[in-house]
Design goal:
This protein is an alpha+beta fold. The protein is 19% helix and 34% strand. It binds zinc ion.
Protein backbone atom coordinates (compact mmCIF):
# COMPACT_ATOMS: atom_id res chain seq x y z
CA UNK A 1 0.00 0.00 0.00
CA UNK A 2 1.45 3.33 -0.87
CA UNK A 3 1.97 5.93 1.75
CA UNK A 4 -0.59 8.49 0.66
CA UNK A 5 -3.39 5.98 0.64
CA UNK A 6 -2.31 4.67 4.03
CA UNK A 7 -2.38 8.08 5.63
CA UNK A 8 -5.78 8.72 4.17
CA UNK A 9 -7.17 5.48 5.50
CA UNK A 10 -5.74 5.79 8.98
CA UNK A 11 -7.42 9.13 9.24
CA UNK A 12 -10.78 7.80 8.11
CA UNK A 13 -13.32 5.22 9.18
CA UNK A 14 -11.46 2.40 7.51
CA UNK A 15 -8.58 2.87 9.94
CA UNK A 16 -8.75 -0.57 11.51
CA UNK A 17 -8.50 -2.31 8.15
CA UNK A 18 -5.76 0.01 6.99
CA UNK A 19 -3.62 -0.40 10.10
CA UNK A 20 -2.92 -4.04 9.45
CA UNK A 21 -1.34 -3.03 6.18
CA UNK A 22 0.26 0.13 7.54
CA UNK A 23 1.88 -1.59 10.42
CA UNK A 24 4.17 -3.32 8.01
CA UNK A 25 5.43 -0.02 6.79
CA UNK A 26 5.48 1.79 10.16
CA UNK A 27 6.12 -1.08 12.48
CA UNK A 28 9.09 0.80 13.89
CA UNK A 29 7.13 3.93 14.77
CA UNK A 30 4.99 4.57 17.80
CA UNK A 31 4.51 7.64 19.92
CA UNK A 32 2.22 6.48 22.66
CA UNK A 33 0.60 9.69 23.65
CA UNK A 34 -1.00 12.73 21.97
CA UNK A 35 1.01 15.12 24.16
CA UNK A 36 4.33 13.54 23.19
CA UNK A 37 3.20 13.49 19.55
CA UNK A 38 2.57 17.24 19.82
CA UNK A 39 6.09 17.84 21.18
CA UNK A 40 7.56 15.67 18.42
CA UNK A 41 5.69 17.70 15.81
CA UNK A 42 6.96 20.92 17.38
CA UNK A 43 10.50 19.54 17.19
CA UNK A 44 10.06 18.65 13.50
CA UNK A 45 8.65 22.11 12.85
CA UNK A 46 11.67 23.76 14.54
CA UNK A 47 13.95 21.50 12.46
CA UNK A 48 12.24 22.40 9.18
CA UNK A 49 12.25 26.11 9.93
CA UNK A 50 16.05 25.83 10.31
CA UNK A 51 16.53 24.00 7.05
CA UNK A 52 16.71 20.48 8.47
CA UNK A 53 14.05 18.80 6.36
CA UNK A 54 15.37 15.27 6.32
CA UNK A 55 13.89 14.05 9.60
CA UNK A 56 11.21 11.42 9.13
CA UNK A 57 10.83 9.34 12.27
CA UNK A 58 7.83 7.50 10.83
CA UNK A 59 10.14 6.10 8.19
CA UNK A 60 13.37 5.80 10.15
CA UNK A 61 11.71 4.45 13.28
CA UNK A 62 11.04 5.84 16.76
CA UNK A 63 9.36 4.60 19.89
CA UNK A 64 8.57 7.27 22.44
CA UNK A 65 6.43 6.80 25.49
CA UNK A 66 5.91 7.82 29.12
CA UNK A 67 7.54 5.47 31.59
CA UNK A 68 9.78 5.31 34.58
CA UNK A 69 13.40 6.40 34.19
CA UNK A 70 16.03 5.46 36.73
CA UNK A 71 18.36 7.72 38.69
CA UNK A 72 16.08 10.74 38.71
CA UNK A 73 16.38 11.25 34.92
CA UNK A 74 13.56 13.14 33.20
CA UNK A 75 14.16 11.29 29.93
CA UNK A 76 16.35 8.55 28.47
CA UNK A 77 17.23 7.62 24.87
CA UNK A 78 18.18 4.07 23.95
CA UNK A 79 20.11 3.57 20.72
CA UNK A 80 18.15 0.52 19.67
CA UNK A 81 16.42 -0.32 16.43
CA UNK A 82 14.19 1.60 16.40
CA UNK A 83 15.43 4.45 18.65
CA UNK A 84 13.55 4.25 21.93
CA UNK A 85 12.87 7.30 24.14
CA UNK A 86 11.35 7.05 27.59
CA UNK A 87 10.04 10.22 29.27
CA UNK A 88 9.62 9.93 33.03
CA UNK A 89 5.94 10.45 33.80
CA UNK A 90 6.42 11.35 37.44
CA UNK A 91 8.96 14.10 36.68
CA UNK A 92 6.85 15.33 33.74
CA UNK A 93 3.87 15.80 36.04
CA UNK A 94 6.02 17.40 38.72
CA UNK A 95 7.44 19.98 36.27
CA UNK A 96 3.92 20.77 35.07
CA UNK A 97 3.06 22.14 38.53
CA UNK A 98 5.57 24.98 38.12
CA UNK A 99 5.56 28.25 36.20
CA UNK A 100 8.29 26.98 33.86
CA UNK A 101 6.77 23.49 33.48
CA UNK A 102 6.14 23.75 29.75
CA UNK A 103 9.69 24.85 28.94
CA UNK A 104 11.20 22.20 31.23
CA UNK A 105 9.15 19.45 29.64
CA UNK A 106 9.88 20.74 26.17
CA UNK A 107 13.59 20.79 26.97
CA UNK A 108 13.40 17.18 28.16
CA UNK A 109 11.72 15.91 24.98
CA UNK A 110 13.85 18.04 22.64
CA UNK A 111 17.07 16.97 24.40
CA UNK A 112 16.14 13.30 23.95
CA UNK A 113 15.10 13.87 20.33
CA UNK A 114 18.48 15.58 19.88
CA UNK A 115 20.03 12.23 20.81
CA UNK A 116 17.47 10.07 19.03
CA UNK A 117 16.84 11.84 15.73
CA UNK A 118 20.00 13.94 15.32
CA UNK A 119 22.46 11.59 17.05
CA UNK A 120 23.84 14.48 19.12
CA UNK A 121 26.06 13.46 22.00
CA UNK A 122 26.38 15.29 25.29
CA UNK A 123 28.21 18.57 24.82
CA UNK A 124 29.24 20.43 27.97
CA UNK A 125 30.82 23.44 26.32
CA UNK A 126 29.92 26.80 27.88
CA UNK A 127 29.45 30.42 26.88
CA UNK A 128 31.82 33.03 28.35
CA UNK A 129 29.35 33.54 31.23
CA UNK A 130 29.64 29.89 32.19
CA UNK A 131 26.10 29.15 30.99
CA UNK A 132 25.67 26.03 28.83
CA UNK A 133 26.43 26.66 25.16
CA UNK A 134 24.18 23.81 24.02
CA UNK A 135 21.00 22.11 25.15
CA UNK A 136 22.86 18.79 25.10
CA UNK A 137 24.67 19.28 28.41
CA UNK A 138 24.70 16.00 30.32
CA UNK A 139 26.65 13.23 31.99
CA UNK A 140 29.45 13.19 32.78
CA UNK A 141 29.08 16.79 33.99
CA UNK A 142 32.16 18.80 34.99
CA UNK A 143 32.54 18.85 38.75
CA UNK A 144 30.48 21.54 40.51
CA UNK A 145 28.11 22.12 37.59
CA UNK A 146 24.39 21.43 37.35
CA UNK A 147 22.57 20.37 34.16
CA UNK A 148 19.84 23.04 34.43
CA UNK A 149 19.29 24.96 31.21
CA UNK A 150 17.27 28.14 30.78
CA UNK A 151 15.09 27.14 27.82
CA UNK A 152 12.91 30.24 27.66
CA UNK A 153 12.64 33.29 25.40
CA UNK A 154 15.66 34.15 23.23
CA UNK A 155 17.69 31.38 24.88
CA UNK A 156 15.30 28.75 23.52
CA UNK A 157 15.72 30.17 20.00
CA UNK A 158 19.51 30.12 20.33
CA UNK A 159 19.66 26.58 21.75
CA UNK A 160 17.50 25.26 18.91
CA UNK A 161 19.60 27.14 16.31
CA UNK A 162 22.70 25.54 17.79
CA UNK A 163 21.11 22.08 18.03
CA UNK A 164 20.14 21.96 14.36
CA UNK A 165 23.21 23.86 13.11
CA UNK A 166 25.96 22.81 15.54
CA UNK A 167 28.76 24.34 13.48
CA UNK A 168 27.49 27.86 14.10
CA UNK A 169 29.22 28.55 17.41
CA UNK A 170 28.80 32.32 17.50
CA UNK A 171 28.23 33.61 21.04
CA UNK A 172 24.72 35.08 21.33
CA UNK A 173 24.33 38.74 22.35
CA UNK A 174 22.50 37.91 25.56
CA UNK A 175 25.55 36.04 26.88
CA UNK A 176 27.20 39.42 27.54
CA UNK A 177 24.40 41.74 28.61
CA UNK A 178 25.10 45.41 29.28
CA UNK A 179 23.28 47.81 31.56
CA UNK A 180 25.30 50.93 32.33
CA UNK A 181 23.35 52.28 35.27
CA UNK A 182 20.90 49.92 36.98
CA UNK A 183 19.38 52.85 38.91
CA UNK A 184 18.46 54.64 35.66
CA UNK A 185 15.03 56.31 35.78
CA UNK A 186 14.43 55.06 39.33
CA UNK A 187 14.24 56.90 42.66
CA UNK A 188 16.14 55.79 45.76
CA UNK A 189 13.66 54.63 48.38
CA UNK A 190 15.86 52.84 50.92
CA UNK A 191 19.43 53.85 51.78
CA UNK A 192 20.55 51.73 54.72
CA UNK A 193 24.19 52.37 55.56
CA UNK A 194 24.27 50.75 59.04
CA UNK A 195 26.20 53.65 60.55
CA UNK A 196 25.81 54.57 64.20
CA UNK A 197 22.91 56.89 63.42
CA UNK A 198 21.05 54.21 61.46
CA UNK A 199 17.48 53.64 62.59
CA UNK A 200 17.35 49.87 63.04
CA UNK A 201 14.03 49.81 64.90
CA UNK A 202 12.42 47.71 62.16
CA UNK A 203 15.13 45.04 62.26
CA UNK A 204 15.08 42.23 64.81
CA UNK A 205 18.49 42.47 66.52
CA UNK A 206 19.26 39.71 68.96
CA UNK A 207 21.86 37.31 70.27
CA UNK A 208 20.12 33.95 70.35
CA UNK A 209 21.32 30.37 70.46
CA UNK A 210 20.58 29.86 66.77
CA UNK A 211 21.77 33.19 65.39
CA UNK A 212 23.10 36.63 66.21
CA UNK A 213 21.91 39.78 64.47
CA UNK A 214 23.75 42.99 65.21
CA UNK A 215 24.79 46.29 63.74
CA UNK A 216 28.33 47.25 64.64
CA UNK A 217 31.30 48.99 63.09
CA UNK A 218 29.14 50.22 60.23
CA UNK A 219 28.09 46.68 59.30
CA UNK A 220 24.95 44.64 59.58
CA UNK A 221 26.05 41.18 60.73
CA UNK A 222 23.93 38.04 60.65
CA UNK A 223 25.73 35.06 62.13
CA UNK A 224 23.89 31.79 61.59
CA UNK A 225 25.13 29.44 64.32
CA UNK A 226 22.68 26.66 63.50
CA UNK A 227 22.41 23.88 60.97
CA UNK A 228 19.26 25.49 59.53
CA UNK A 229 19.09 28.01 56.71
CA UNK A 230 17.53 31.36 57.62
CA UNK A 231 15.61 33.74 55.43
CA UNK A 232 16.15 37.27 56.74
CA UNK A 233 13.77 39.86 55.35
CA UNK A 234 15.32 43.29 55.70
CA UNK A 235 12.75 45.63 54.19
CA UNK A 236 9.10 45.54 53.29
CA UNK A 237 7.35 47.81 50.85
CA UNK A 238 3.89 48.11 49.47
CA UNK A 239 4.17 47.58 45.77
CA UNK A 240 2.19 47.50 42.62
CA UNK A 241 2.59 44.21 40.78
CA UNK A 242 5.15 44.47 38.05
CA UNK A 243 6.72 47.74 39.19
CA UNK A 244 10.34 48.42 38.25
CA UNK A 245 12.89 48.12 41.00
CA UNK A 246 16.60 47.77 41.74
CA UNK A 247 17.94 46.26 44.96
CA UNK A 248 21.64 46.42 45.78
CA UNK A 249 23.88 45.50 48.67
CA UNK A 250 27.59 45.24 49.45
CA UNK A 251 28.33 41.98 51.20
CA UNK A 252 30.89 39.39 52.12
CA UNK A 253 30.29 35.92 53.52
CA UNK A 254 32.33 34.05 56.10
CA UNK A 255 32.10 30.49 57.35
CA UNK A 256 32.29 26.93 56.20
CA UNK A 257 29.11 27.08 54.15
CA UNK A 258 29.79 29.03 50.99
CA UNK A 259 26.25 29.76 49.92
CA UNK A 260 24.39 33.07 50.05
CA UNK A 261 21.16 34.26 48.46
CA UNK A 262 19.87 37.74 47.72
CA UNK A 263 16.12 37.73 47.13
CA UNK A 264 13.19 39.97 46.45
CA UNK A 265 9.62 38.92 46.20
CA UNK A 266 6.51 38.58 48.28
CA UNK A 267 5.65 37.16 51.65
CA UNK A 268 2.27 35.69 52.46
CA UNK A 269 0.94 34.68 55.82
CA UNK A 270 -1.56 31.88 56.01
CA UNK A 271 -2.21 30.61 59.51
CA UNK A 272 1.06 29.35 60.98
CA UNK A 273 2.88 29.34 57.67
CA UNK A 274 4.72 32.10 55.92
CA UNK A 275 5.18 31.58 52.23
CA UNK A 276 7.95 33.39 50.40
CA UNK A 277 7.89 33.74 46.64
CA UNK A 278 10.94 35.45 45.25
CA UNK A 279 13.51 36.08 42.54
CA UNK A 280 16.91 34.98 43.71
CA UNK A 281 20.59 35.14 43.02
CA UNK A 282 22.35 32.38 44.96
CA UNK A 283 26.12 32.23 45.28
CA UNK A 284 27.58 28.75 45.55
CA UNK A 285 31.21 29.49 46.21
CA UNK A 286 32.44 30.89 42.87
CA UNK A 287 29.24 30.09 40.96
CA UNK A 288 25.84 31.74 40.84
CA UNK A 289 22.43 30.13 40.38
CA UNK A 290 19.55 32.31 39.23
CA UNK A 291 15.84 31.76 39.28
CA UNK A 292 12.57 32.30 41.04
CA UNK A 293 10.73 30.08 43.42
CA UNK A 294 7.69 29.68 41.18
CA UNK A 295 9.93 27.68 38.84
CA UNK A 296 10.98 24.10 39.47
CA UNK A 297 14.71 24.71 39.78
CA UNK A 298 17.32 27.44 39.13
CA UNK A 299 17.30 28.44 35.46
CA UNK A 300 21.02 27.97 35.18
CA UNK A 301 24.38 28.29 36.84
CA UNK A 302 26.99 30.84 35.77
CA UNK A 303 30.42 31.96 36.93
CA UNK A 304 30.72 34.70 39.52
CA UNK A 305 33.03 37.49 38.33
CA UNK A 306 33.86 38.35 41.97
CA UNK A 307 34.42 36.27 45.07
CA UNK A 308 32.02 37.26 47.84
CA UNK A 309 33.81 34.88 50.23
CA UNK A 310 37.05 36.87 50.13
CA UNK A 311 38.31 39.80 52.19
CA UNK A 312 36.55 42.53 50.23
CA UNK A 313 32.90 43.54 50.15
CA UNK A 314 31.28 42.87 46.79
CA UNK A 315 28.37 44.81 45.36
CA UNK A 316 25.52 42.57 44.16
CA UNK A 317 22.18 43.67 42.75
CA UNK A 318 19.02 42.69 40.92
CA UNK A 319 17.14 45.04 38.58
CA UNK A 320 13.67 44.45 37.21
CA UNK A 321 12.76 46.54 34.21
CA UNK A 322 9.50 45.86 32.41
CA UNK A 323 9.57 42.29 31.14
CA UNK A 324 13.25 41.77 31.93
CA UNK A 325 15.34 41.09 34.97
CA UNK A 326 19.07 41.87 35.19
CA UNK A 327 21.60 40.56 37.70
CA UNK A 328 24.76 42.45 38.74
CA UNK A 329 27.98 41.49 40.52
CA UNK A 330 30.78 43.97 41.21
CA UNK A 331 29.02 46.62 39.14
CA UNK A 332 28.95 44.33 36.10
CA UNK A 333 25.73 43.11 34.50
CA UNK A 334 26.13 39.33 34.43
CA UNK A 335 22.75 38.02 33.28
CA UNK A 336 19.59 39.16 31.56
CA UNK A 337 16.41 37.13 31.56
CA UNK A 338 12.72 37.46 30.84
CA UNK A 339 10.40 37.89 33.80
CA UNK A 340 7.84 35.15 33.33
CA UNK A 341 6.30 35.32 36.77
CA UNK A 342 4.75 38.42 38.21
CA UNK A 343 6.34 38.44 41.65
CA UNK A 344 5.28 41.70 43.19
CA UNK A 345 8.44 42.70 45.03
CA UNK A 346 7.14 43.62 48.46
CA UNK A 347 9.83 41.89 50.44
CA UNK A 348 13.61 42.34 50.28
CA UNK A 349 16.22 40.30 52.06
CA UNK A 350 18.59 37.37 51.90
CA UNK A 351 19.15 33.80 52.96
CA UNK A 352 22.04 32.98 55.23
CA UNK A 353 22.85 29.30 55.08
CA UNK A 354 23.82 27.04 57.98
CA UNK A 355 27.01 27.91 59.86
CA UNK A 356 27.86 31.03 57.92
CA UNK A 357 28.02 34.75 58.61
CA UNK A 358 26.84 37.59 56.43
CA UNK A 359 28.52 40.99 56.69
CA UNK A 360 26.71 43.79 54.92
CA UNK A 361 27.90 47.35 54.42
CA UNK A 362 24.71 48.77 52.98
CA UNK A 363 21.35 47.86 51.52
CA UNK A 364 19.58 50.05 48.98
CA UNK A 365 16.37 49.93 47.01
CA UNK A 366 15.37 52.11 44.09
CA UNK A 367 11.92 52.05 42.54
CA UNK A 368 9.83 53.72 39.89
CA UNK A 369 7.70 55.69 42.34
CA UNK A 370 4.80 53.24 42.43
CA UNK A 371 5.85 51.72 45.75
CA UNK A 372 6.19 53.01 49.29
CA UNK A 373 8.24 51.79 52.19
CA UNK A 374 6.94 50.63 55.50
CA UNK A 375 9.02 49.27 58.31
CA UNK A 376 7.70 46.65 60.65
CA UNK A 377 9.87 44.55 62.93
CA UNK A 378 7.33 41.70 62.91
CA UNK A 379 7.90 41.25 59.21
CA UNK A 380 11.67 41.22 59.37
CA UNK A 381 11.84 38.35 61.85
CA UNK A 382 14.32 35.75 60.52
CA UNK A 383 12.68 32.42 59.75
CA UNK A 384 14.00 28.93 59.10
CA UNK A 385 13.61 28.06 55.44
CA UNK A 386 13.93 24.62 53.91
CA UNK A 387 15.57 24.70 50.54
CA UNK A 388 15.54 21.77 48.18
CA UNK A 389 18.58 21.94 45.91
CA UNK A 390 16.82 20.92 42.71
CA UNK A 391 18.35 19.95 39.41
CA UNK A 392 16.77 19.02 36.13
CA UNK A 393 18.35 15.92 34.75
CA UNK A 394 18.22 14.24 31.35
CA UNK A 395 20.10 11.20 30.15
ZN1 LIG B 1 21.26 13.40 27.23
Amino acid sequence: MNKIKCLYLTAGIAASIALSSCEKEYTNYSVSNATLQEYLEKFLYEAESRGVKSLNPQKTGLKMYFGDCDEGAAGVTYYENPIRIVIDKEIWDKYADYADGTSQNEHTVFHELGHGLLYRKHDNSTLSSGEWATMMAGDPLPSGSIPNTNFRGERRTYYLDRLFNPNDKKEPNWAKPTFDDPTESLTKMVDDDFSSTYDASHITLRDAREYTTKISGGEFVFQNKSTNNYIVPLQNVTAVNGSDVYVETEVKIEGSNKIFTLEFGSRDESGQDTKYTYHYMSFYDTRIRLGNTLCYAPYCQIKSPKNIYGDDFVKVGIRKQGDYIYYFVGGECIYKDIVDTNISGTNYGFIVYANSTLRMKNFRIWNDGTVSLYKSSAETEPQIINIEERETHNK
